[in-house]
Design brief:
Blueprint (H helix, E strand, L loop, with lengths): L1 H21 L6 H21 L5 H24 L5 H20 L3
Subcellular location: Cell membrane
Organism: Sphingobium rhizovicinum
Membrane topology: Multi-pass membrane protein
Length: 106
C-alpha cells in the first residue's frame, strides 16, 4: 500500500506543478486552488508512504515521478523544448528511480 500511496503522491506532484504554471504566479483562482489542493493531497500521501518506506527512497521516488512527469507534461502540453541532452537527463533520472525501487526494502 505504501508504494501505491507514493505513486499517487508523485502523480499529484505533476498535477500541482502543471497547475502552478497555469496559475501565472497564483494570479488565477482555479489553477491556484488546484495547485494547493493537489499539494496537500500529495504531501499527505507521501507522509503515509513514509510510515513504512525509508525517507531517502520515498522522497527520491516522489520527486523523480514529479520531475519526469513535469518534463513530459511541459513537452507535450506547453511546447517546451526537447533535446538529446534533456532526454538523456530524463533517462538518467528514470534509471535512478528504477535502481532505488529495486534496492528498496519495504
Amino acid at each position: 500500500m505504501a508504494w501505491v500511496s507514493l505513486f499517487i503522491a508523485g502523480l499529484l506532484e505533476i498535477v500541482w506543478a502543471f497547475a502552478m504554471k497555469q496559475s501565472q504566479g497564483f494570479t488565477r483562482l482555479a489553477p491556484s486552488l488546484i495547485t494547493l489542493g493537489a499539494m496537500v493531497a500529495s504531501f499527505g500521501l507521501l507522509s503515509l508512504a513514509m510510515r513504512s518506506l525509508p525517507l531517502g527512497t520515498a522522497y527520491m521516488i516522489w520527486t523523480g515521478i514529479g520531475a519526469l512527469g513535469a518534463f513530459a507534461v511541459g513537452v507535450a502540453f506547453l511546447g517546451e523544448a526537447i533535446s538529446p541532452a534533456r532526454l538523456v537527463a530524463a533517462g538518467l533520472i528514470l534509471c535512478g528511480l528504477v535502481l532505488m525501487k529495486l534496492s528498496a526494502q519495504g
